[in-house]
Amino acid sequence: MGLSNANLRVIRVFLIHWRRVAGSWLDGPFAALIGEFLPDLTGHRDSVWCLATLNGYIFSGSADKSIRMWNGDGGFIREMVGHTNCVSCLLSLGGNLFSGSWDRTIRMWSADGEPLRELVGHRDGVYSLTSLQSRMFSGSAGKDIRMWDTQGNFICALYGHENGVSCFTTLCEFLFSGSWDCTVRMWNLEGECVHVLKGHTDEVYALVTLGNCVWSASEDKTLRMWNLQGECLRELTGHRKGVSCLTTFGGRVASGSWDRTIRLWSSNGECEAELKGHTDGIYHLVTLNGRLFSGSWEGGICMWNPDGECMREMQGHRDVVTCLCTLNGKVFSASTDRTIRMWNAAGDFIKELNGFHYRTSYGTTSGFSSSFEGGMSLSSFASVWSQMQRS
Prior knowledge:
Elements: H1 5-15, H2 21-26, E1 48-54, E2 57-62, E3 67-70, E4 76-81, E5 87-93, E6 96-101, E7 106-109, E8 115-119, E9 126-132, E10 135-140, E11 145-149, E12 154-158, E13 165-171, E14 174-179, E15 184-187, E16 193-197, E17 204-210, E18 213-218, E19 223-226, E20 232-236, E21 243-249, E22 252-257, E23 261-265, E24 271-276, E25 282-288, E26 291-296, E27 301-304, E28 310-314, E29 321-327, E30 330-335, E31 340-344, E32 349-353, E33 360-362, H3 381-390
Parallel strand pairs: 4-33
Antiparallel strand pairs: 1-2, 2-3, 3-4, 5-6, 6-7, 7-8, 9-10, 10-11, 11-12, 13-14, 14-15, 15-16, 17-18, 18-19, 19-20, 21-22, 22-23, 23-24, 25-26, 26-27, 27-28, 29-30, 30-31, 31-32
């Protein structure tokens, strides 16, 4: 097929999770062809990629192009439609919800799930959203970052990355962006690039702050610590495959890797523990009540105490756990098996979220196009999978 490295990186962040490609197809849209597709009146109809909380509600974004709103007990409230491709990221800000999509747009919704506005301007799919001092930032596979106010008004574009923007974090009055171009960039609130943080030799997947340092994780198997002067304070090694996710945990940084392990690092970068228990790569991390929860490719979730001991293995998902979030003392997990599951703080399963489409919000805007040239369709997965396995 002859795909360039740049094109491969654009799709890596989502494609890499489809370890069981054939199985995911048969348990996704293609299953409709063989009569095994879930009825339209149940939950999401495709992989669930992101979760967010707002005013005591859970919102889920899916490859079925929709967002669903649930109450804190997992009861279905409404479906929010308008995007024309996968909903890849969600952010609550200023009492509203913002959704980013592969259709190159961001949509603004009220806390009740009503459509308010469509934000356009990106030239490729939107993969990441964050906020800093009443401003929203969106990162795209098209290399650019865009700054908006809380009402969705465009402020300015931030250019400099040479490949897609994969992740954000903030520290003091600065925005940090990680990219598939192997760099981290530091921006001020005027949209000016203050520093380019170089050192990683492969895609940057995750960023987190601890104290006055920014930590970055990369496919190059390392973490790096940076100060506000853009200097690399330390390179952290130990993982045997790419580092996929980061979070803070009890004054330390926890890193999850495709090597199936989690590592706990002190604030000065010393590895204090290696957590083993998963049978496949780690995709997402979240904390609740002094416990660390990890979601993995194999569909399992593990609960860890601060000493790094696995206290509980939480089974139920049938495919990759893509996202974890917390609300009212509960953990919510999303998966490519199209479901969301709710657990209590002790790791006990409570319920699987599904619901009937009795309320639907249509986010329609004049001039909205249903075409999307920059997205990644399921039909493209087969032709690039073998390349991704080698890349």
